[in-house]
Amino acid sequence: MTKSYDLYAIGNALVDMEYEVHDEFFNKHRIDKGLMTLVDEERQGYLLEALGTAPKKQQCGGSAANTVIAAAQLGARTFYSCKVAKDPIGNFYFQDLLDNGVQSNLVHQDREDGITGKCLVMITPDAERTMNTFLGITSSISKNQVDPDAIRNSHYMYMEGYLVASPTGREAAVHAKRIAEAAGVKTALTFSDVNMVKFFKEGLLEMIGEGVDLIFCNESEACSFTGTTDVMIAREKLKNFAKTFVITLGENGAVIFDGETFIDIEPYMVKAIDSNGAGDMYAGAFLYAITHQHSYASAGKLASLAASRVVSQFGPRLKTEALLEIKSMVLGTV
Asked: If you ran DSSP here, which 8-state letter would residue 250 be given?
């Protein structure tokens, strides 16, 4: 059966604003390095004022948005459900999605008054990303933003783990998953951040329900979720929650479970500049590949190379031409 979309995703709509900082900035302003921290508008405004310059890069983001954009750049047909306000930044976000070939609920839904969410991404010389996020209106994302027809007409429905921090967001993800399962659409989840696992594990379990088809996580998230410090134990325990999964291991590559066997993906060695968006790119490239009849091993190679290119530059995205070149190198197709 022909479907309209390869990938449907639901997640937070945040305008990413990237800055280069040093550890002293974190010490001075009491920021937890390497984590995503939710802040209020006043706190984010204070930090922006302390930074005192324009961001190095600004674009529509949020974890799942980065993933669907990467998949779309590679040639996937994608749809994104999100919530932005009727403000200039919301207009910018909507247009950026369209410019990247992503369809969304924003086309036919009236936007509310409010403030579109912003993610302050601070990058240190060691390539570590630290995020302070003001969710704005996306904190009230709900079942109203879910598009049942788009889900039913997709091959995969992908949920962003960050939604677990919002009661209505978690409810929206669970609602979307039920629609997908009823329609025979495969489901995927990214844990998003180790803090989501540490503080919202019960909510993630609710989103997983009786299981998903695919989980994306890194080593620390996998270990935290399964209650171990040994990734070898974690990967066995993850089989209880997902039919297949990917555990990214940073400079050590990744391990993939394809439902039958484990596949080790060798890393591509690069000089890391900015780790922001690496996991999102990995998921986008991987989902593109498996929805286009490529093996899990090939998907892992494509995703690993694409993610390595992302961390060697600033920003969570690559130019479309660069991604298509990577696709040609790994998959032999354009």
From this structure: G
Are 218 and 183 contacting, i.e. CB atoms less than 8 angstroms apart? no
Distance CA 155, CA 148 (A): 13
Check which CATH number belongs to the domain holding 202 and give it.
3.40.1190.20
Ordered alpha helix ranges (H), the chain? 23-29, 41-51, 63-74, 88-99, 148-152, 167-182, 194-208, 219-226, 231-237, 278-290, 296-311, 320-331
Whether pLDDT at 274 is above 80: no
Residue pLDDT, tens place only, 173-231: 999 999 999 999 999 999 999 999 999 999 999 999 999 999 999 999 999 999 999 99
Predicted TM-score (pTM) of the model is 0.91
Domain count along the chain: 1
Instruction: Name the burial class of residue 137, with classes exposed (0-12), middle (13-18) and buried (19+) by CB atoms within 10 angstroms of its CB.
Output: buried
Range of the domain at 12: 5-331
Are 209 and 182 a contacting pair, CB within 8 Å?
no
Phi, psi of 99 (to 5 degrees): -65, -25
Give Dmax (Cα) for the chain: 57
Within 13 Å and on the Cβ side, how many CA atoms surround 47? 30
pLDDT score at 276: 65
Reported as a pLDDT band with limits 50, 70 and 90, residue 57 is confident
Q: Where are the alpha helices (DSSP H) in 41-119?
A: 41-51, 63-74, 88-99
Contact residues for 85 (Cβ-Cβ < 8 A; gap 6+): 111, 112, 113, 114, 115, 116, 136, 137
Average pLDDT over residues 84-97: 93
User: What local confidence, expressed as pLDDT, does residue 269 receive?
Assistant: 75
